[in-house]
Amino acid sequence: MADVVPGWLVSAHAHCVTPLPSPRPPAGAAPVQGRVGDRSYEAHPTPRDDGTVVWWLIDDTDHRLAREALRAERERTEFLVRSSNLLLSSLNLDRCMDVTAQMAADHLADAALVIAPAQGRELPVVSCVRGGSPSLSRAAVDPGAVPGLAEALQGFPPVPSRWLDPSAAPDWLVPEGLDALGSIVITPLPGHGVPAGALVLLRNEATGAFTEGEEVFARLFAARAGAAMSAARLYAEQASITDTLMRELLPPSLRQVSGVEYAGGYRPSQDSERVGGDFYDVHPAADEGAPSLVVLGDVCGKGLEAAVMTGKIRNTLHALLPMAEDHHRMLSLLNTSLLNTENARFATMVLASAARDGNAVRLRLTSAGHPAPLILRSDGRVEEVRTKGTLVGALPEITTQTARVTLAPGDTCVLYTDGISEARGGPMGGVMFGEERLCRALSECAAMPAEAVVEHVQMLTSEWVGAGRHDDMAVVVISAPRTNHLSAVDGHTRGRFTA
């Protein structure tokens, strides 16, 4: 029988006719499977009473092929789902390139390269060998030297692998650790309107060439990887643009200018936001001894839209600096400018011109619908500056009243927005912080440096508000420090102020 029957059937038959006392398989025993030539059969045994066994062979080649195709399709679907989850879990472009290269090397080829569009004269390349870790490099090469690569980077359809000669692959395309190259697949990584790069799959000679079905599946994987890389690149570009704009909209860091000490603090209405409707600036004087201009304002509204309006106001005020000596004219021109814009937002603000005069600081303060500035004397007394005016951006004509104040050494002028005085919270919740409570808080800051006064006010208002909702809050402090003025050493350079 062994000469005419396949071995798998001989073994199964020998088990069925095992002599007693071993029990003979009952009728309907489990079938066995095997191949006869290029066909697959399922053999069912039927033992007979005389000790012989009848074998019924059923050709199940088509069923086997269907099962194998279904299993392969399930594995591919699971791979695509897993790769999509990994790729879409991050908006970091480098991470997406690493995941693409590693998954392609481990599941689709013996090695893989992910090549991004050129940055200058270099191509960013992430390479990975099966079982290894991805590595990033930059290749100053011509993609046109590799057939199909330049086209793939531009998003054109891939070149069939049978048309690519592995022996012509340049050294930079073959990662270290890969044996003799036997087959190459180059396919584009399609993005959102703009190609995201190219995917290169490499196989050893011993592994065999890529089939047409494997190339089609590689393109399905590349479509998902390209979409993830394109989204990550778009996010990075938008984040860079947003960060640049935010830096321009954020209040500046303040310091000592011409012997006058400045400090500022800002907290937007939403902790998740970086900008809002409150703003402040200090514009140092162009000439030594001339007053510097301090601006603190509050635009109607919150969030990014209000922040955009603050940017317009700040730019307009910067352009009006040559007439900073005349607060009323400056505010009137700003008011006209705001009325001529399509944005219907208005703003309140206060201008302060500060100049060092010996050991004192002379201030000119003008309010435009803004809370009056407060003067903290070195002995703890708090005074309200008598200045008032109409807000800007709402009425055709505005009125202003400028006040003059002198800060002795150790005195401080505090400019603040209504987000501080109207902050609601406290032990019972819903109670306004109020100007009276603010004045008591300032009286505790007598003779403190400007930065310490800002930190104290911010700390108290933050504790008062707690986790509750609040408006944008900004505060600027102008101090006359306890310093002495040193004249120029050589008689030509500017002098400086020192403690």
Concise description?
The N and C termini lie far apart (111 Å). Helices cover 31% and strands 27% of the residues.
Helix-strand blueprint:
Blueprint: H1 7-16, E1 32-36, E2 39-47, E3 53-59, H2 61-88, H3 93-107, E4 111-115, E5 123-129, E6 135-139, H4 149-153, E7 181-189, E8 197-204, H5 212-249, E9 261-267, E10 278-283, E11 292-299, H6 303-319, H7 327-339, E12 347-357, E13 360-368, E14 374-376, E15 382-384, E16 388-389, E17 400-407, E18 412-416, H8 418-421, E19 424-425, E20 431-432, H9 434-443, H10 450-465, E21 473-479, E22 484-486, E23 496-498
Antiparallel strand pairs: 1-2, 2-3, 4-5, 4-8, 5-6, 7-8, 9-21, 10-11, 11-12, 12-13, 13-17, 14-15, 14-18, 16-17, 18-21, 19-20, 22-23
Helix pairs in contact: 2-3, 2-5, 3-5
Task: Give me some keywords for this one.
alpha+beta, six-stranded antiparallel β-sheet, five-stranded antiparallel β-sheet, about 30% helix, elongated
What would your notes on this structure say?
By secondary structure, the chain is α+β, with helices and mostly antiparallel strands. It has helices at residues 7-16, 61-88, 93-107, 149-153, 212-249, 303-319, 327-339, 418-421, 434-443, 450-465, and strands spanning 32-36, 39-47, 53-59, 111-115, 123-129, 135-139, 181-189, 197-204, 261-267, 278-283, 292-299, 347-357, 360-368, 374-376, 382-384, 388-389, 400-407, 412-416, 424-425, 431-432, 473-479, 484-486, 496-498. Helix 2 runs parallel beside helix 5.
